[in-house]
């Protein structure tokens, strides 16, 4: 007897099949919008903060030129996040933010261990992987990239 490995799973509640079919296209845009919103809120706090203090903090972590890193982070986490939220230049900004999360992972959070409660890398790791996936996937069906018919 051979096993059919190409068979799809069956729903425990088959009545949900229609619902899943109707809303499944919304799953990816929801993830894109939520990740972008989280990044934006994080960046907005920096935007409203003391840039000299942010640059000084980055310098203490070894990120030089710290002023460039500080302004780049604020730009990416505000303007870039809004663009990802809208699905505009999605791949570019998601890739740039994934790189920023990687830098934060290495320079800030890795030495503190895994747990976010101790300042560890748990949070930036998750965001970085999600941003990388968004960069690979692009804006998708519900995006400004799709409306204008172009993406990077």
Note down, in words, how this protein is organized.
It contains 7 helices and no strands. 66% of the residues lie in helices and 0% in strands. It is globular. The model has no long low-confidence stretch (mean pLDDT 92). It is mostly helical and 152 residues long. The chain has one domain (25-140).
Radius of gyration: 19 Å
Strand share of the residues? under 5%
Largest sheet: none
What would the average pLDDT be, to the nearest integer?
A: 92
Structural class: mainly alpha
Detail the poorly predicted runs.
none
The figure for the number of domains is: 1
- What general form does the structure show? globular
Q: How many helices?
A: 7
Helix content: 55-70%
In angstroms, what separates the terminal alpha carbons?
A: 49 Å
Please provide the count of β strands: 0
Q: Element order, helices and strands? A: HHHHHHH
Describe the structure concisely.
By secondary structure, this protein is mainly alpha-helical. Helix content is 66%, strand content 0%.
Task: Name the features.
66% helix, 152 residues
Helix and strand topology:
Layout: H1 17-23, H2 27-47, H3 51-60, H4 66-86, H5 90-109, H6 122-137, H7 144-148
């Amino acid at each position: 007897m051979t096993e059919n490995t190409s068979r799809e799973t069956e729903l425990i509640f088959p009545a949900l099949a229609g619902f899943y079919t109707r809303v499944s296209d919304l799953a990816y845009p929801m993830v894109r919008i939520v990740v972008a919103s989280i990044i934006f809120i994080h960046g907005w706090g920096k935007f409203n903060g003391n840039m000299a203090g942010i640059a000084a903090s980055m310098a203490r972590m070894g990120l030089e030129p710290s002023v460039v890193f500080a302004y780049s982070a604020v730009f990416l986490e505000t303007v870039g996040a809004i663009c990802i939220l809208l699905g505009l230049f999605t791949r570019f900004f998601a890739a740039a933010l994934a790189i920023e999360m990687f830098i934060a992972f290495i320079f800030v959070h890795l030495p503190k261990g895994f747990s976010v409660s101790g300042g560890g890398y748990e949070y930036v790791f998750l965001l970085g992987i999600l941003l990388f996936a968004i960069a690979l996937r692009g804006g998708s069906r519900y995006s400004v990239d799709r409306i204008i018919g172009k993406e990077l």
